[in-house]
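Usage

Read records sequentially. Each one opens with the input sequence:
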Amino acid sequence: QVQLVESGGGLVQAGGSLRLSCAASRSIFSINTMAWYRQAPGKQRELVASITVRGTTNYADSVKGRFTISRDNPKNTVYLQMNSLKPEDTAVYYCAAGSGGSIVTNTPRYWGQGTQVTVSS
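and closes with the structure output:
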């Protein structure tokens, strides 16, 4: 088993920034893809961003240009830098890990417990 622990969520005004962290219990070198999902009230969980072992990144259109996913391999940690936040970004954000295919199909092998991000207008 691998544990994923998110941190960094909170309340921020529109236009502000937050950085989410996801600490993994084992080396992220052994994990094909790390990703951030989010789920807003009344909506399905959606993929926000992903990053592969080689550093290839993908972003949802809704966050492209505002969010950046990155990794710190020695610290076994993945980050999501969120800038220019909008009220529609309000959601519970989840860290996830798995194969590239599992991320694409929204069935990653491992999930974190989530961290709340609330953006006020």
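Summary fields computed downstream for this record:
- Helices lie at 100-104.
- The chain has one helix and eleven strands.
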